[in-house]
């Protein structure tokens, strides 16, 4: 039996509650945020290294890397699986996107999650919706989504 201190239990409960609230939050009417996902048998560390290369090759800069699984292991939960989120951005693309629609800030920065599940390494990213009322934004989103898919595919190949 694993015993948690009341402080750890409180923080765990708080995190779960926040995730549930976020998960239940409604998207704006008519908006569906699509995603793209691929999986591989490659070692997890290799996938992360390839992900960083792919992001750089698409002329993005990594703005954050959260090693959630590692931090949980470091805090005492042995054998906790790897979970990582990598955030990245290209300021030229960001400026273009925001000039087309200030509301598009909710899609920034680009984010890719990586985790292991059933013996596979999963790599997943949200895509930018391509069915807005703004034709220029839709074309831009299609171009960005192509890059995001190429990043994911490179990491898992």
UniProtKB/TrEMBL annotation:
InterPro entries: DUF302, TT1751-like_sf. CDD domains: DUF302. Pfam families: DUF302. Residues 72-125 form the DUF302 domain. It comes from the Bacteria. This is DUF302 domain-containing protein. It comes from Methyloprofundus sedimenti.
